[in-house]
Amino acid sequence: MAKDLLLQELRHRTQNDLAMVISVLALQARGNVSEETRTALQNAISRIRAISGAHDQFGPLDEHGKIDIKDYLTSLCAHFSESLRDIRPVTIEVAVDSASLRANDAQAIGLIVNELVTNAVKHAFPEERTGTVRVTFRDGSPRVLVVEDNGVGCATIEKGGIGSRLTGLLVKQLDGSIVWESAEPGCRVRVTFAEASQ
Question: pLDDT averaged over the chain?
Answer without folding.
Answer: 80
